[in-house]
Every structure is written in structure tokens, then in C-alpha cells.
Amino acid sequence: MHERPYEKLIAWREAYALNLWIYSLTEKFPSHEKFCLVQQMHKAAYAFL
User: Distance (Å, rounded) from C-alpha 1 to C-alpha 33?
Assistant: First the structure.
């Protein structure tokens, strides 16, 4: 797979790692949170990439 230029930036790599951490964290949330808090956290995590 070809690496894009921005993927070499340390800031982007840190943001991507944080994004993955947030996604893995929200998998452990209770099911009643899946459509409120989890969605908001996923959108916020994706926004800074």
C-alpha cells in the first residue's frame, strides 16, 4: 500500500493512534450508548484526522 505524504507526519500518526484508541474504547461501552455517546465520540475522533 502506498503511503500518503501526510501519513509521514508525527502529528498525523499520533492523531491516528488516538483515533484507533477511541474506537477500541467505545467497543466496551454498554449497548444503550451505541447510538448517542459512541457516535459522537467516533465523529469527534474522525474530525481531527
Answer: 35
